[in-house]
Amino acid sequence: MTLTCSPAASSVPCSVLLLAGGRGVRMGGCDKGLLPWKGKPLIAHVQAVVRPFTDDVIISCNRNQNSYQAYADQLVEDSQKDFPGPLAGVLAGLAVAQHPWLLVLACDAPKIDEALIRALFAARPATDSALMVQQAGQWQPMFSLIPKALLPGLQQDWDEGERSLLRALLKRDPRALTCASDDPRLSNFNTPELLIGSH
Fold first, then answer.
1. How far apart (Å, rounded) are the C-alpha atoms in residues 152 and 158?
2. How high does pLDDT run on average in the chain?
Protein backbone atom coordinates (compact mmCIF):
# COMPACT_ATOMS: atom_id res chain seq x y z
CA MET A 1 0.00 0.00 0.00
CA THR A 2 1.43 3.38 -1.01
CA LEU A 3 0.82 6.21 1.42
CA THR A 4 2.13 9.75 1.64
CA CYS A 5 2.73 10.45 5.31
CA SER A 6 2.95 13.80 7.02
CA PRO A 7 6.32 14.93 8.46
CA ALA A 8 5.05 14.10 11.94
CA ALA A 9 4.22 10.59 10.88
CA SER A 10 7.53 9.92 9.14
CA SER A 11 9.49 11.07 12.20
CA VAL A 12 7.80 8.43 14.38
CA PRO A 13 7.15 5.20 12.48
CA CYS A 14 3.99 4.11 14.19
CA SER A 15 1.20 1.58 13.90
CA VAL A 16 -2.26 2.58 15.10
CA LEU A 17 -4.60 0.31 17.06
CA LEU A 18 -8.28 1.22 17.24
CA LEU A 19 -9.98 -0.71 20.02
CA ALA A 20 -13.44 -1.88 18.97
CA GLY A 21 -13.57 -5.25 20.68
CA GLY A 22 -15.79 -4.47 23.65
CA ARG A 23 -19.11 -5.94 24.64
CA GLY A 24 -20.91 -2.59 24.42
CA VAL A 25 -22.83 -3.20 27.64
CA ARG A 26 -23.72 0.47 28.15
CA MET A 27 -24.89 0.59 24.53
CA GLY A 28 -27.33 -2.26 25.06
CA GLY A 29 -24.89 -4.78 23.61
CA CYS A 30 -24.45 -2.88 20.33
CA ASP A 31 -21.08 -2.80 18.62
CA LYS A 32 -20.04 0.76 19.52
CA GLY A 33 -17.63 1.32 16.68
CA LEU A 34 -20.35 0.79 14.11
CA LEU A 35 -22.95 3.08 15.68
CA PRO A 36 -23.69 6.15 13.54
CA TRP A 37 -22.56 9.64 14.49
CA LYS A 38 -22.94 12.55 12.10
CA GLY A 39 -23.85 10.17 9.30
CA LYS A 40 -20.91 7.78 9.64
CA PRO A 41 -19.90 4.97 12.02
CA LEU A 42 -17.84 6.08 15.00
CA ILE A 43 -14.91 4.00 13.73
CA ALA A 44 -14.90 5.96 10.46
CA HIS A 45 -14.35 9.27 12.24
CA VAL A 46 -11.42 7.97 14.28
CA GLN A 47 -9.87 6.18 11.32
CA ALA A 48 -10.06 9.30 9.16
CA VAL A 49 -7.98 11.25 11.69
CA VAL A 50 -5.24 8.64 12.09
CA ARG A 51 -5.04 7.44 8.49
CA PRO A 52 -2.58 10.16 7.32
CA PHE A 53 -0.15 9.20 10.09
CA THR A 54 0.34 5.51 9.30
CA ASP A 55 0.31 2.75 6.75
CA ASP A 56 -0.66 0.25 9.46
CA VAL A 57 -4.13 0.77 10.93
CA ILE A 58 -5.06 -2.20 13.12
CA ILE A 59 -8.58 -2.67 14.42
CA SER A 60 -9.25 -4.94 17.38
CA CYS A 61 -12.74 -6.36 16.96
CA ASN A 62 -14.43 -9.52 18.15
CA ARG A 63 -17.46 -9.39 15.83
CA ASN A 64 -18.60 -7.75 12.59
CA GLN A 65 -15.19 -8.19 11.01
CA ASN A 66 -16.56 -7.67 7.51
CA SER A 67 -17.78 -4.19 8.48
CA TYR A 68 -14.50 -3.19 10.12
CA GLN A 69 -12.30 -4.47 7.29
CA ALA A 70 -13.03 -1.37 5.20
CA TYR A 71 -11.27 0.81 7.80
CA ALA A 72 -8.22 -1.35 8.58
CA ASP A 73 -5.00 -2.67 7.16
CA GLN A 74 -5.14 -5.51 9.70
CA LEU A 75 -7.83 -6.94 11.95
CA VAL A 76 -7.08 -8.70 15.23
CA GLU A 77 -9.26 -10.31 17.85
CA ASP A 78 -8.78 -11.29 21.47
CA SER A 79 -7.00 -14.57 22.12
CA GLN A 80 -9.58 -15.29 24.81
CA LYS A 81 -13.32 -15.29 24.22
CA ASP A 82 -15.93 -13.48 26.32
CA PHE A 83 -14.60 -9.93 25.81
CA PRO A 84 -11.74 -9.91 28.37
CA GLY A 85 -10.99 -6.17 28.00
CA PRO A 86 -8.62 -3.75 26.27
CA LEU A 87 -5.39 -5.37 27.46
CA ALA A 88 -6.24 -8.37 25.28
CA GLY A 89 -6.74 -6.10 22.28
CA VAL A 90 -3.49 -4.26 22.92
CA LEU A 91 -1.55 -7.52 23.15
CA ALA A 92 -3.02 -8.67 19.83
CA GLY A 93 -2.19 -5.31 18.26
CA LEU A 94 1.38 -5.23 19.53
CA ALA A 95 1.94 -8.76 18.21
CA VAL A 96 1.17 -7.76 14.61
CA ALA A 97 2.27 -4.09 14.61
CA GLN A 98 4.64 -3.34 11.74
CA HIS A 99 6.33 -0.39 13.46
CA PRO A 100 8.20 0.07 16.79
CA TRP A 101 5.42 2.18 18.34
CA LEU A 102 1.68 1.51 18.67
CA LEU A 103 -0.76 4.38 19.09
CA VAL A 104 -3.79 3.07 21.00
CA LEU A 105 -7.16 4.80 20.68
CA ALA A 106 -10.75 3.89 21.48
CA CYS A 107 -13.30 3.58 18.70
CA ASP A 108 -15.81 5.73 20.61
CA ALA A 109 -13.72 8.93 20.76
CA PRO A 110 -14.50 10.54 17.39
CA LYS A 111 -13.48 14.06 18.45
CA ILE A 112 -9.75 13.36 18.44
CA ASP A 113 -7.83 15.57 16.03
CA GLU A 114 -4.48 15.74 14.28
CA ALA A 115 -3.13 18.14 16.90
CA LEU A 116 -3.65 15.56 19.65
CA ILE A 117 -1.93 12.86 17.59
CA ARG A 118 1.01 15.18 16.91
CA ALA A 119 1.23 16.06 20.61
CA LEU A 120 1.42 12.38 21.53
CA PHE A 121 4.20 11.83 18.99
CA ALA A 122 6.09 14.91 20.18
CA ALA A 123 5.97 13.70 23.79
CA ARG A 124 7.16 10.20 22.93
CA PRO A 125 9.69 9.02 25.55
CA ALA A 126 13.26 8.41 24.47
CA THR A 127 13.20 5.16 26.42
CA ASP A 128 10.94 2.13 26.04
CA SER A 129 8.25 3.66 28.24
CA ALA A 130 4.60 4.09 27.37
CA LEU A 131 3.02 7.51 27.07
CA MET A 132 -0.53 8.09 28.33
CA VAL A 133 -2.82 11.06 28.39
CA GLN A 134 -3.51 12.30 31.91
CA GLN A 135 -6.48 14.48 32.91
CA ALA A 136 -6.79 15.98 36.39
CA GLY A 137 -4.36 13.35 37.64
CA GLN A 138 -6.30 10.49 36.04
CA TRP A 139 -4.56 8.27 33.51
CA GLN A 140 -6.35 7.60 30.21
CA PRO A 141 -4.96 4.36 28.75
CA MET A 142 -7.35 4.59 25.77
CA PHE A 143 -5.17 7.47 24.56
CA SER A 144 -1.67 6.06 24.71
CA LEU A 145 1.50 5.40 22.77
CA ILE A 146 3.09 2.05 23.58
CA PRO A 147 6.46 0.75 22.36
CA LYS A 148 6.40 -2.72 20.87
CA ALA A 149 9.33 -3.52 23.17
CA LEU A 150 6.85 -3.76 26.07
CA LEU A 151 5.03 -6.73 24.51
CA PRO A 152 6.94 -9.49 26.35
CA GLY A 153 6.38 -7.90 29.76
CA LEU A 154 2.72 -7.15 29.10
CA GLN A 155 2.21 -10.69 27.83
CA GLN A 156 3.79 -12.05 30.99
CA ASP A 157 1.42 -9.96 33.09
CA TRP A 158 -1.51 -11.37 31.11
CA ASP A 159 -0.25 -14.93 31.54
CA GLU A 160 -0.06 -14.29 35.31
CA GLY A 161 -3.69 -13.17 35.41
CA GLU A 162 -3.55 -9.39 34.94
CA ARG A 163 -6.52 -8.06 32.95
CA SER A 164 -6.18 -4.29 33.48
CA LEU A 165 -4.35 -2.38 30.76
CA LEU A 166 -3.90 0.56 33.11
CA ARG A 167 -2.34 -1.49 35.91
CA ALA A 168 -0.03 -3.25 33.46
CA LEU A 169 1.20 0.05 32.03
CA LEU A 170 1.56 1.73 35.43
CA LYS A 171 3.99 -1.01 36.46
CA ARG A 172 6.34 0.27 33.75
CA ASP A 173 6.70 3.94 34.73
CA PRO A 174 4.66 5.54 31.92
CA ARG A 175 5.13 9.16 30.89
CA ALA A 176 2.19 11.57 30.96
CA LEU A 177 0.80 13.91 28.33
CA THR A 178 -1.31 16.31 30.38
CA CYS A 179 -4.58 17.46 28.85
CA ALA A 180 -7.25 19.73 30.30
CA SER A 181 -9.96 17.96 32.28
CA ASP A 182 -12.59 19.37 29.92
CA ASP A 183 -10.71 18.67 26.67
CA PRO A 184 -13.56 17.73 24.28
CA ARG A 185 -11.23 15.65 22.11
CA LEU A 186 -11.08 13.01 24.82
CA SER A 187 -14.85 12.54 25.07
CA ASN A 188 -15.98 8.91 24.97
CA PHE A 189 -19.45 8.29 23.59
CA ASN A 190 -20.06 5.10 25.51
CA THR A 191 -23.75 5.49 26.33
CA PRO A 192 -26.71 6.18 24.02
CA GLU A 193 -27.36 9.48 25.83
CA LEU A 194 -23.83 10.75 25.18
CA LEU A 195 -23.95 9.67 21.55
CA ILE A 196 -27.32 11.33 20.89
CA GLY A 197 -26.46 14.46 22.87
CA SER A 198 -23.24 15.03 20.94
CA HIS A 199 -24.84 15.56 17.54
1. 10
2. 86
